[in-house]
Amino acid sequence: MNDRIIQIGSAQASPGEVGEGAIEITKHAGGNILSIPITIINGKNDGPCFWINGGIHGDEPEGILTCSMVRQAITPSILSGSVILAPVMNVPAMEAAERGNPLDTFSYDMNRIYPGKENGYLSERIANEHRKWLIKTADIEISIHSGGSHSYLSETIFATKDSQAQELARAMGEEWDLTLYANRPSGSPMAILTEIGKAAITVELGGRSSTAPGAFHRVGEVLSRAALNIMKHYKMIEGEPTYPNKRYKGFQQALLAPESGVFLPETNIKFHQIMKKNDLIAKIINYKGKSIAELLAPEDGMIFGLRALPNVTTGDWCCFYAIIEGTWDD
């Protein structure tokens, strides 16, 4: 039996209970409290503490939907251990629908500034308060990301090479066959947990071209299914987990626009499909329709992310490409 009362900020849950609350950060000038919303689902039986973090980037709402679906899928009565839902870590960025808080230019990207600072810029203070509770309670953690406002990313995991992280990555389930190296993670929730020997990964799925109602719902289903698969793997809930038949490994390379114009990916390319070096990924045409540049596969590998906006300027991000070095089972 579980006899652990869990408290995170103002949220508290005894065994068999659900607690709602928040991690308070500060007060706005008008008196409103800036905080990180938290839900604790504390199971009746013993087990690990599993954190699901979302919304560290404000143009990536996939974590909110995932946490909502997970909350509806599980109850304390069926749970061994606890699930902590932090659907929006960076509320100012989410309210602005931007990657970071537009009013905090010195620590704009909150996923680069962990462990944060108690007396730092606002985003640093948010990161610091979140970190305190995370390292105090978490055994396993996933941070949910996507392509945000300008791109789409397919089912991809970033993880360190240690056995704990790789076990967690595999536990995401059969739909997650690409796990890229996070060799020296720094500045993120994954990094601070890895430093203390806990299992943590960053997962990517979704973005601008998948925010229409049906497509967005499908992204939430895939992510929530992965979260439930993790719980099955770690014996937090009943059921048989699934695993990928093959897990590719390698490292990412960003492909940037060599010219300005209109970005046109090849219509027959697919995510996670093996490509050969110099295979054509996309063309850039000018406003008269003339092809002025090509994006080619830099090495053997696969595409896991593409720009969602056709208009492009020299140096803009166009494609995230995975250079494949084999599989994790090799």
From TrEMBL:
<feature type="domain" description="Succinylglutamate desuccinylase/Aspartoacylase catalytic">
    <location>
        <begin position="48"/>
        <end position="216"/>
    </location>
</feature>
<dbReference type="InterPro" id="IPR055438">
    <property type="entry name" value="AstE_AspA_cat"/>
</dbReference>
<keyword id="KW-0479">Metal-binding</keyword>
<dbReference type="GO" id="GO:0016811">
    <property type="term" value="F:hydrolase activity, acting on carbon-nitrogen (but not peptide) bonds, in linear amides"/>
</dbReference>
<keyword id="KW-0378">Hydrolase</keyword>
<dbReference type="Pfam" id="PF24827">
    <property type="entry name" value="AstE_AspA_cat"/>
</dbReference>
<dbReference type="InterPro" id="IPR053138">
    <property type="entry name" value="N-alpha-Ac-DABA_deacetylase"/>
</dbReference>
<dbReference type="InterPro" id="IPR043795">
    <property type="entry name" value="N-alpha-Ac-DABA-like"/>
</dbReference>
<protein>
    <recommendedName>
        <fullName>Succinylglutamate desuccinylase/Aspartoacylase catalytic domain-containing protein</fullName>
    </recommendedName>
</protein>
<dbReference type="GO" id="GO:0046872">
    <property type="term" value="F:metal ion binding"/>
</dbReference>
<keyword id="KW-0862">Zinc</keyword>
<dbReference type="GO" id="GO:0016788">
    <property type="term" value="F:hydrolase activity, acting on ester bonds"/>
</dbReference>
